[in-house]
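Running co-folding for tryptophan.
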Amino acid sequence: MGNIILTGDRPTGKLHLGHYVGSLKNRVIMQNEGNFDKMYVMIADAQALTDNFNNPDKVRDNIIEVALDYLSCGIDPNKVTIFVQSHVEQLTELMFYYMNLVTLSRLERNPTVKAEIKQKEFGASIPVGFLTYPISQAADITLFNANIVPVGEDQLPMLEQTREIVRTFNNYYSEVLVEPKAVIPDNKICSRLPGLDGKAKMSKSLGNCIYLSDSEKDVKSKVMSMFTDPNHIQITDPGKVEGNTVFTYLDAFCTDDDFSEFLPDYKNLDELKDHYRRGGLGDVKIKKFLNNILQKELSPIREKRKHYEQNIPEIFDMLLKGSEDAREVGAETLKKVKAAMGINYFEDVELINKQQQKYK
Ligand code: TRP
């Protein structure tokens, strides 16, 4: 079998630059290389509800925002099945069977979930749905027999958990599930892009994002307000590049071509960094350079979005069709899963005959 690629996002807000360099960009490249049998992109609304159950409107409103961001970045529904998680009911059924294969202590050890529980201040009141979302994610991946999952670094524990579930299932029942592997960006920074404040990962809940749909003006003012080196006060002061968010972003986004286009006094990022370290290079200049690079990347996305924003009913229709496709594939896998577990009673003539023989 060839490659089956699957990935997804929680619809809790518009997508930002962290999503873009962490995964979206990679997806579009993979889509266009065409080296796969099937590619799926899932809007993970059921997962989003595990910590937004008391605010379903947020999830409801952001389904279309995420879809608009996908299309604007170049994800093409003619090549990729884009679907909505809650509309593929086989996912919940599969999760229920997987729950038998995972212990509570294993769930509590998941470092990403652990960090999220702390951040959300659940304390002793952790919703079961939230704690178990890694099991749901295992169902997302395996229902489609995906072997490649392009994600950011924070998703590696989910993939590890998925692989464990696959191995346990195949071991208890029979070899029907595919073990997936994560594909993370080569550039470490892209895998975990920090927010504007430079402190934590870019994240909606921390309010440190540049959104793909931000206006030109908003992107510029966010870049101009970015954190640099607090000790670099005068232009002539030597500056620090490490931990300087503008340079972190340049590491993630800039290419040598950007220098010839926007900053021809320097050949590459190393030269620019050297000058900053020596002193004599001001923050405004590097911020303007970063702004130019980001605007170049974002303006085609922004333009495309304006077009798609005028076609909302068609996009919902596309999601419905994608979800129908996903359900068909899901039903096939679930049938195999149930046969492997021996719970396909009504299709098993041998079982029926055997049970009859017992009493003859
Ligand atoms: N947990 C992922 C996130 O927060 C979203 C997601 C849900 C996902 N199901 C998935 C990603 C399956 C990859 C594969 O971004």
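Result summary
Residues 4-192+312-355 form a domain with the Rossmann fold fold (CATH 3.40.50.620).
The first helix runs from residue 17 to 33.
Job closed.
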